[in-house]
Backbone:
């Protein structure tokens, strides 16, 4: 399991007890502020979300986690607020969004042994329609067909509230109605 220093302190650990656990081999320091109970943890969404807590999973990563596609992403797709520091990793695709709608639809989702920051299904539908040209056509149609299958589970009131934050919300709303 992966822990941030903040989580360890919240659970009653101190700098001393953390160093003690590291010296005994009960805890491993992956890098500054990031620890693991496994000496070589698997780098997955849980790890990435702990390492970059100011980001949100989006794009192909979120579509895969929600089961909207069976294409396994070979990189982690993260979004950061505009003017954030760039993430310099080969396995991360980072995009930036204006802070006025960055956190719209953000939620914490249980994933493995931890929680990850990810956009909800309603926001992911907006992202799919909004960034349609960014995705290959076969992926777009696979995901939109998956959304059609679960459209009864979507909260369209929430979608309309989210669309109010976007400059082109009305045109996105028309495109969503046509697509679904």
Residues:
């Amino acid at each position: 399991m992966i822990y941030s220093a903040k989580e360890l302190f919240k659970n009653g650990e101190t700098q001393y007890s953390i160093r003690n656990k590291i010296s005994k081999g009960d805890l491993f320091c992956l890098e500054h502020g990031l620890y693991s109970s496994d000496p070589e943890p698997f780098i997955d969404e849980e790890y990435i979300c702990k390492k970059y807590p100011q980001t949100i999973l989006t794009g192909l990563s979120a579509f895969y986690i929600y089961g909207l596609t069976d294409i396994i992403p070979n990189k982690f797709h993260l979004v950061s607020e505009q003017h954030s520091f760039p993430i310099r990793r080969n396995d991360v695709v980072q995009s930036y969004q204006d802070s006025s709608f960055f956190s719209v639809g953000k939620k914490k989702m249980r994933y493995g042994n931890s929680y990850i920051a990810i956009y909800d299904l309603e926001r992911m539908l907006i992202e799919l329609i909004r960034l349609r040209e960014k995705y290959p056509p076969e992926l777009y149609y696979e995901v939109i067909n998956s959304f059609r299958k679960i459209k009864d589970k979507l909260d369209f009131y929430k979608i309309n509230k989210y669309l109010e934050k976007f400059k082109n919300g009305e045109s996105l709303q028309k495109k969503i109605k046509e697509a679904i």
